[in-house]
Design a protein that fits this description.
The structure is a homodimer.
Chain A (H helix, E strand, L loop, with lengths): L10 H14 L8 E2 L2 H8 L3 H13 L3 E4 L3 E4 L14 H7 L4 E12 L2 H7 L6 E11 L2 E10 L17 H8 L4 E9 L3 H7 L7 E10 L2 E11 L5 E6 L5
Helix pairs in contact in A: 1-3, 2-3
The structure holds a DNA duplex.
DNA sequence: GGATCTCGATTGTCTATACAAGTGAATGCG
DNA sequence: CGCATTCACTTGTATAGACAATCGAGATCC
């Protein structure tokens, strides 16, 4: 495509980044004027439709507001990260300005446990892929990810290197998400979880059980356990008047 | 502007209407293929960018999902009502075939705590309404609901009888939900919570902090605490690949 | 001064085209 | 048959321009 740089970042995304950075650093305070579409065209040497797209998407995200005939302005800062949207924990940690790393504890093929067979629609004698990963926020263990993956949907799962790419990233690439089921529970950690997350047995944990689907069927079944004192699920949910 | 009709409806909006009508009447069932951008160009005599905009906006709304190189398809209808769906706990309990009852512990006006003032956009010297309710599933205490309500939005809150109608039901009627923020945490119960939910201090609890908005502004700020061993949040979430 | 008009700046809609990139099915080869 | 290649189709990004609609400010007129 026509790209302004080699990194693969679309131009409209670069403009969005620029605007967001100006807002985050305080250069452009609340209600201050943002460059017009025409001005961004000159500044970034792009067409008006490209500059417009950047402003448009930021408006949809609630970062800006615009008025025809007047201009575009910085909106009031509101909490707006997305709720149980399927988020990549690595992105989440980096969004906080922290460093994410992952420790791969296990990556193997297993005979399918009954619960998993039911969730993924497999027979119990069929093998299922299994990965166990500890995610770190800086040096603190944050989340234990135990994931069962359907070999029919993702045959090359065991060949991946999950130190540099989270299972979520890989699965998103090879089997685009179409649906997901979730269960959120508060539990006490078992011995195994205590060890990997460096917890005492009395610290409550948040456990998210997530089953993901792609067009073809069930892809993976994951247990994501985090220390309650270190993690919260949060976000913003828009209610559509139609629904 | 260049408009295809006199009604002032933009062309891209007309295409959206057409697609939505086909889905609503069942002509285009779930996961069925939607006309490609090129096909819509021919059908509506518009440029590709206009047809694209219609498909794009419907995708952002969760009505369609698209895959590069493949096509556009009808998403599952349940999309919006997802996880952390705004559910009424009474309905939830009755859906399980159990009996719901509520015990009103407190219903009063209070000076606004700082945290609540921030959440609801009130001054700290202004009063705020407060209700404290224990919800029972059959005879078992299930959830402790501590709720702060914005008097400007719901002036008659203190006059309600919350034994026969949950705050959620009443608020839904007088200030229809438009948005909500959520935080989900795993916590250990304090002494007060232990007493009302009949818990020991080591039982983990799920705490949902929810702030609701209606068109006019922030309506209420609620802490919903449930015993982890008795309650789980669950749901189904459709993912729009664009997000 | 006060009301009205004009005009420039800005956003909104739309066209026609171009190239990039991903998918899946048909094709051809060993 | 199995495998790789090719090709058509589809969506993604981007351009350069056009006209429409709205608002605010300055100019004009009374």
């Amino acid at each position: 495509m026509q790209r302004s740089n080699d990194s693969g970042t679309p131009k409209f995304a670069a403009i969005k980044e620029f605007i967001l950075s100006q807002i985050e650093t305080g250069n452009w305070p609340e209600h201050s004027r943002v460059p017009s579409e025409h001005a961004l065209c000159d500044q970034f040497a792009v067409s008006r439709m490209t500059a417009r797209r950047a402003l448009q998407e930021l408006t949809e995200q609630g970062v800006l507001y615009r008025t025809q005939g007047v201009g575009s302005f910085v909106a009031s800062p509101k909490s707006q990260s997305a709720l149980l949207e399927i988020r990549n924990i690595a992105d989440e940690i980096q969004a906080r300005g922290h460093f994410h790393s992952a420790q791969l504890v296990q990556l193997t093929s297993l005979p399918c446990p009954a619960l998993v067979a039911g969730a993924l629609g497999l027979n119990r004698n069929e093998p299922v892929f299994f990965s166990l990963i500890v995610h770190y926020d800086n040096q603190t263990p944050l989340q234990l990810e135990a994931r069962y993956v359907n070999p029919k949907m993702v045959p090359l799962y065991l060949q991946q290197d999950f130190h540099y790419q989270t299972p979520h990233e890989y699965l998103s690439a090879v089997a685009p998400l179409t649906e997901a089921d979730h269960i959120v529970e508060a539990v006490l950690p078992d011995e195994f979880t205590c060890k990997h997350l460096k917890l005492t047995p009395h610290e409550p944990c948040l456990r998210l059980t997530r089953r993901t689907f792609s067009r073809g069927g069930a892809v993976s079944f994951a247990f994501l356990t985090s220390a309650g004192s270190r993690y919260r699920l949060g976000g913003h949910l828009n209610i559509s008047p139609a629904g």
